[in-house]
Amino acid sequence: MQWDFATNGFVHVCGHRGHSVGAPENTVAAFLATRAHGGTTAEIDTVLTADGEIVLMHDLSVDRTTDGSGIVADIPLEAIRQLDAGGWFAPAFAGEPVLTLTEALAVARDLDLGFEVEIKERRNLPHYAKRLAEVLEDPADRARVMMISFDHVSLRWLKTQIPGITTGGIVHARHGDPVQVAVSARLDELCIDLSVWDAGNAMRLHEAGVVNRCHAYSPTVIERITLAGLDPRPSLKDALAAGAIDTLSSDDVGWVAALVAEAGVAPPRDIDA
């Protein structure tokens, strides 16, 4: 799978935790909805269970997004499998399971979906890396994922553990030299919040061989920004048309897909993974 606009000729449309405005985050339902709304990738979150399995969960506890309670790192996988990860969102999604990364990758293969996999693990990164290497043993699966984190040092270390892994550093600040930020941690991508995304910096990253993902929130947030007199949509469309953005992400995949289409660079229905 290719992540850059220059090679693909299209912008990846990414669902933040899947199409999370319309389905429970990090679930099969969210990935199905991502694809149905024109998405080609999904950003997901991962932590370790008590017995060392990588599962999809944004929080370090299961309380917010399941019917259970407790810290994921203290709960074995068998107990995690008993939790309902959909009913909290809406009754129609009751029974959605918490996925292991292995299971999520199987869904991604079926849907031809790429994953940006955020590392939320905090207790045992060495075991996470060991298990990740096992999960991504197939080069095709390894090519399907971009491992991302706020911890750029850990991402640099991860590259020494898993040959060929691609990594993306999350940034919520506008750095004086974003290229150096990427190069210093051997990053393949910078995942940049819309509030600090800059077209000039994006082009400099491209010149250095680094792709970028711009996270564009949701339509509700965009409307609040617009009411403050800072409508980002015209400049986003210009950047998309210029090939400055490799991936555009949002909680609302349909909204992003429509914005990309308006810019004249709509993604294909299928991607070559």
Automatic annotation (TrEMBL):
The record ties this protein, via InterPro entries, to: GP_PDE_dom, PLC-like_Pdiesterase_TIM-brl
Entry-linked Pfam families: GDPD
Which residues belong to any copy of the GP-PDE domain? 11-260
Question: From its record, what is one biological process in GO terms?
Answer: lipid metabolic process
Give GO MF terms, alphabetically. Answer: phosphoric diester hydrolase activity
PANTHER family for the chain: GLYCEROPHOSPHODIESTER PHOSPHODIESTERASE, GLYCEROPHOSPHORYL DIESTER PHOSPHODIESTERASE
By what name is this protein known? GP-PDE domain-containing protein
Source organism (scientific name): Gymnodinialimonas phycosphaerae
